[in-house]
Amino acid sequence: MNKIIINGDIHEGVIHKNIYGHFAEHLGRGIYEGIWVGEDSPIPNTQGIRNDVLQALKQLNIPVLRWPGGCFADEYHWKDGVGPYEDRKRMVNTHWGGVVENNHFGTHEFMMLCDMLGAEPYICGNVGSGTVQEMSEWVEYMTFDGESPMTNWRKENGKMAPWKLTYFGVGNENWGCGGNMRPEYYADLYRQYQTYCRNYNDNTLYKIAGGANVDDFHWTEVLMRDAAPFMDGLSLHYYVHPGGFEKKGSAVNFTKEEWKVTMQKAWFIEKLIRKHGTIMDKYDPNKRIGMIIDEWGAWYDAEPGTNPGFLYQQNTIRDALVAGVSLNIFNQHNDRVRMANIAQTVNVIQAMVLTEGDKMLRTPTYHVFDMFQVHQDAKKLSLDIVSEEVEVGDERYSKLSASASEAKDGTIHISLCNLDTDESANTTLHIRGSDMTTATGRVLTAKEMNARNTFESPETVKPTAFTSYKRKGNFLQLELPPMSVVVLALN
Ligand code: AHR
Which reaction does it catalyse (predicted)? Predict the structure, then answer.
């Protein structure tokens, strides 16, 4: 039997809304086709951005969107992506499929997208193949209001007032695709590049240093030791690929054993947060610097028959569980985790929506982000959790994952995941320190492990009302179905 106590009178800070952030790279059909179709497209669009995707994403209240990469960021030269379309340079996207990048989606288009979504931009600058001057001028172009060559150029390109830009990344994966650097070298470059990313007018940048890959604790140690005073955030990248990086496994054809490995790997990010967090604590005991998990998600082999460089994959109820477990973990570690950006919004890796021509579908992961948005900027509540465990090889993980928060109007929300493929999770939920008179909820579940939405059947997996509970005073007896994500509102 599983037990959860919500301590309604123990608040543990705020769950930063940016934990519900997203990432969109110039990769495959993520930006082009997925978001940007251009004004002349027969696909209904607003100033080039497709309406169906825009509407779907708006519903998620995306707080922050990271762009233009990823690996692409360290090969991106922003000046090629501003000005009249006919003058924009065509280049090769060497990282992702070797296709032509026509630079039609550039700074102005990205900022317009953020405006339309009501999301804050998070821009990643080029350290790997760009200069200090180029990065410095990009910040000047976007944020300076006075008289300067970059400001004048921005105005010539139709934008009179500067944009507000808070989040700025100084390079991406500089241990790998961002230049194959050693941490000591990158730490010095970080210090140098960030110096010239100025705060203009009343715009204050939140500068994010490129962080470690998975369990490269040495990287975190060196960055914190050598560059902590110069950063506001340090990133961390972690992907779940059940078969390992080389042969990741299929997104839709998998066994129960692979399901378990996937869940164990999803839980693993908690260990990473703790260990990287311990190193950060050593240099930053007051937790001024945010851990920014700006790439995460379940990454499988590309769907057969698609360009392997486009990283297009389907999305099943298994991915909904990966999202639910990860978001619960980020919520639980709100003292250090200030932002997270799932990879990658549309048509790439663990996407919110998939498109095919003029069709669009919402994935199971989309629905998890929709259900969990109640936690954005809510007060985190302390939880005591007793859960059955699952063994996989030498590892064990909890079958139940949860986090809880209190909204401004006093409503308590709890998000719960039952990771078991076969058994319901019978769970006693006790709300102490607060009174409850009503409980309502939604559940996302499926009968098959690989249940998914397709263009023929786009609503196979979608949330429904959750009614499998009995209430007695401040106790709820819950029956969480196998493979389910449940969010309850308690008043
Ligand atoms: O998200 C796909 C790629 O994964 C990103 O471009 C890179 O940063 C990471 O290795």
Answer: Hydrolysis of terminal non-reducing alpha-L-arabinofuranoside residues in alpha-L-arabinosides
Report the nearest atom of ligand 1 relative to the CA of 69. Answer: 6
Q: What is the CA radius of gyration of the chain?
A: 22
Cα–ligand 1 centroid distance for 71 (angstroms): 6
ipTM of the complex as predicted: 0.99
Q: Decide whether any atom of ligand 1 lies within 6 Å of the 169 Cβ.
A: no
Annotated active-site positions, please?
Answer: 173, 295
Delimit the CATH 3.20.20.80 region(s) of the chain: 16-377
Instruction: Tell me where in the chain the CATH 2.60.40.1180 domain(s) lie.
Output: 381-490
The answer to whether 1 and 369 have CB atoms below 8 angstroms apart is no
CATH number of 381-490: 2.60.40.1180
Q: Which CATH class is domain 16-377?
A: alpha beta
With the most atoms of ligand 1 within 8 angstroms of its CB, the residue from 27, 95, 177 to mutate is: 177
How crowded is residue 28: how many other Cβ atoms within 10 Å of its Cβ?
26
Closest CA to 110 of 75, 135, 73: 73
294 lines ligand 1 (CB under 6 A): no
At residue 299, the 3 state secondary structure works out as coil
In terms of Cα–Cα distance, which of 458, 444, 263 is closest to 363? Answer: 458
Q: Which helix (H) or strand (E) holds 230?
A: none
Give me ligand 1 centre to Cα 236, in Å. Answer: 12
Nearest CA to ligand 1 atom 5: 70
Give pLDDT tens digits for 234-259: 999 999 999 999 999 999 999 999 99
pTM of the model: 0.97
